[in-house]
Each structure stands twice: as C-alpha cells, then as structure tokens.
Amino acid sequence: MNDNGTPIPDSLDRLLNAHHEREAERYDAAALIERIRATRAAETPPAPVVPRTRSSRWTWAIGFTTIAACLVVAGMFFWKTDEPLRASPQALLQETQKTFHQPVYRCYLVEVQREVNLTDESNPFVSQAKQTRLWTRGDRFWMETTFPAFPRMKNYWGRDEQGTIWMTFGPREGILLTQAETPHWLSVYSDLCSMQPDKLLSDVLRDFDLQREDSPTDSSIQIIRANLKPGRFPAAVRSAVLEIDTETKVLRRLVLQRPAGGPGFQAPSMTTTYTLLETKNQDEIEYPLDGREGKREFYTANYKPELRQKFVFPLFGQRAVEWMKLPMKK
Amino acid sequence: MDVSAGGRLRCGLASQSQSEAEALDNWVRETLPRAVAFARSILRDPIAAEDVAHDCYCRLLRKADIYDLPRDGQRLLYRSITNASINRFQRERSLLSLDAVGPDGKPLGSALLPARGPAPDERMRVSELEQAIERGMANLSVTQRAALQLKMLDHSVQDIADTLGLTTTNAGVLIHRARQAMAAELAPYLEEKAG
Fold this sequence. Notes:
The complex is a heterodimer.
Chain A: H1 11-26, H2 30-42, H3 54-78, H4 89-99, E1 104-114, H5 124-128, E2 131-137, E3 140-146, E4 155-159, E5 165-169, E6 173-177, H6 184-193, H7 197-207, E7 208-213, E8 221-228, E9 239-245, E10 251-258, E11 270-281, E12 297-299, H8 305-316, H9 318-323
Helix pairs in contact in A: 4-7
Chain B: H1 2-43, H2 46-62, H3 69-90, H4 120-125, H5 128-139, H6 142-152, H7 157-164, H8 168-185
Helix pairs in contact in B: 1-2, 1-3, 1-6, 2-3, 3-6, 6-7, 6-8, 7-8
C-alpha cells in the first residue's frame, strides 16, 4: 500500500528482477575476470618474516652505516654541479599545482580528437568550431571559439554555477541557455573542453602511476606520463601526458585520453589536448561577462527568442531546430 | 619412506590448493555478471561499476583464507559492493566519464555519436519498458537504489539496514518509498493485483 492508499502490485518485483537478470545476461564478464586475475597475479605474497637475532641486528646496522657512508663519499666525487637536480614527477606536479593559484589567466588551445571522423553532425561544436581556446584562472574559465559562420567575430562562451550556458556575439549581444534547455551534446562538449587544472592534478597525483619520459635535449620541458593505477578511480581518464616547464613549473601541454564504450554501448574514444598559448595578468584581460551590465543584451527563451534563434541556427544547424522551438503564439 | 610420504603430502596440498583456486575461479565466474549489474544499477555508469566490482572481488579474494567464499561470499560481496558504490557515487567527480549515464538514461558519450541515432539492434534492445525502469532508477537516490536492489536479491530488511548503516525502520521506509516511486513510473506495465 502506498501513501495515497494505492497498493503496490506484486508484479513490480517480477519486472525489476527480470530486468536485473537481463542486465546480468547481457554482460560479458570475460574481460573483467581477466582483469581480476591480472590484479591477483600482480599482488605477490609478502616475503616470510624471519625473526632477527641480536647479533644479526648489529650486523644489519653496521652494514647500513657503511653503505650510507660510501654513497655520501661517492656522491661528493661524482656529482656534477652543472647538471640540474631532477625532481621526482610527484614533486614537479605539486609545484605545478601551485602555479594555478597565481593571479594570472592562461590560455590553452583545445583540440578534441575522436577515433571516427569529425565531419558528421553529431556535435556541431566539434565539427564546426574552427578553433577553441580555453582561458582559465583558478576555477574560473571560459572558451573563445571561432566559427566559419562568423569569421570576424570572437565568440566567448562558458557556463555559470547554475549550469546556464552563455555565449556572446560581438560587444552588444549574447544568448543564454538554461540547464533545462541545453542540449545533451553541448553539455558534454563543455565538460570535455573545460579543465579544472587544480582538481585534475590532485586526481593524477592520487590515482595514477607517474613516469618520466624522455624530453627533448637542451629543453626545460619535462614530460610525465600518468597511467591509471589498476582498479583505481577515476576511470573517466585512462592516461594523461603532461609537459611541464621545469623553470616556471607551468603546465605547457596536457593530453587526456578518455575511453568510451562500455558493455552494450559503443562510442568513439576521445583525446583532448590542451596547449598553452599565452599567459596574461589580471589587468590585461577581463572576464567576458564582467563590466558588461547594461551594455549587452542577452536573448533567452522568454526575451527576444527569435533573435536567439538567429544566432543559434547558423552555428548548430538542424539540431538547433529540433531542440529550440519558438514558443507558440497565442 | 619419509620422502615418499612428504612427496604425497606436498602433492596432496598442491592438489588441494589447486581445487580451492578452481572453486574460487568458478565462484567469480558465476557471481560476477549479477554483481556488475547490481553495481551498475546503483552507479548508473558501466565503467565505474566494473571498477567497483573489480576492487571488491580483489579485496575478498585476498581474504579467501579467512572466508569460505563459495559458501558465504555472496552476502559479503553485495555488502562490499553496496558500500563501495555509494562511496564512489558520493565522491566528487571532476572528470567527465563518457560512459556515465545522463539524465535521459543514455551514456554521455552517445551525445558524440553520429546524429543518425542508435543502431537498430540497440533500439530493439532498449525497449520502452527498460527505458522506463532506467528512468525510474535514475530518479531514486543512491541509497534507495541500493536498498531496492538488495531487497530484490532477497536480503532481509535487517541485513539491508546493517549494510547501509540505518535502523531497521528507516531501511523499511527507504525500501517502501523506492518501490512506490518505481510503481508510479512503471504503472502502465504493472498488473493490477496488489501485494
């Protein structure tokens, strides 16, 4: 019986059980069984503990002291002072993390690559955007996108805390799309392009195995490859390659590989590359929405919706027609 | 004489450990699909569900010398998966997973597929009923989903309460509300006979 006095039929459990069974039957467990076996095989049993006698403890202590002394002496002879001391990948990433708290804006070129071609109409942003640049400072970010439809205009867009997508067209006009109106592909694309570097590096430090890769000679760039530790979260990104300037500790380039295609679902894997283009001080650039109150008109579903369509249709084509319909005139 | 006895003993131990390993392997093979489906229904993200199942199996297998997994493992497994899934779900996710399920019940990555829509076999697979079940599950809270799934798997209310760290009364209310919500979503598919 539910709160309205309507009884809950028995058949509910049958439906849910049958659904669960179908889901289990569809699941191909072979790959996961292999993964579990591989993890188990990698977990080597600990070496047996041998109780140490008083004399062996002394032997161990003397041996350790001798080796340590030899290493110090050898280090004094062979260490070349003209060679820079290389920090561990972890230490370098921690230093890089600090640079994201500096009061500067950094601009990254964003390139999204898929396994399949980019000419289909699945995502108008991917197929039509000429170039996307991401400006980031701390948690604040916005995109700068150039479209062939508006070659002379710089289009800025971003997403606020409420999930509203805003886009500007020139100095006086813009459009707003509330979270409920935003099409699925646009939400996904803005998630793909946006990067919260501070959080990202925290995830990488915690959940990834870090390995230094060969860097170009006479370069201050260090390349770190991060591979997801077995069985670790987040599975959203399987690997990352980070190029860091060892002098400024700034992240110069980042390549994120996102796998896709779970059981019963096939989708192209995505590689997103962020390349640092320029850095500007706070007084050299302003957030596109700052200082624009009263100067820019934002068209919404309720305020001049026909003008909003005027901007959206050339950008997104047929999909925009499907997703944004003008309200019926009474 | 001693040597042959020792040899027989070693052979005996080896065959015993081999049969134990086979039993554990069979246990994993038999329970895994349902366990992953269970984690998936709570997390609504197939990749995250696999990760959780992988971790929980590895954790239990590490303790295979303490527990009799083929006999008692199922209950431990579901308890472990429930807690790991809820932890995982509530943990902040800063990176987009293309396999996470969106509000429309489809993986987020499907938004990047060609606009032609899902393949015919996929359309057949995702029937209206299944879509309604997915929609209903998506509207439940993560603990409601876990409680409902455990109830379906014949766990007692007391056991569900223990797993979720609730009182028996609260667990009962949680299950009842979850069933109510699902009954409302699936009303067109339910037979009228009440329980």
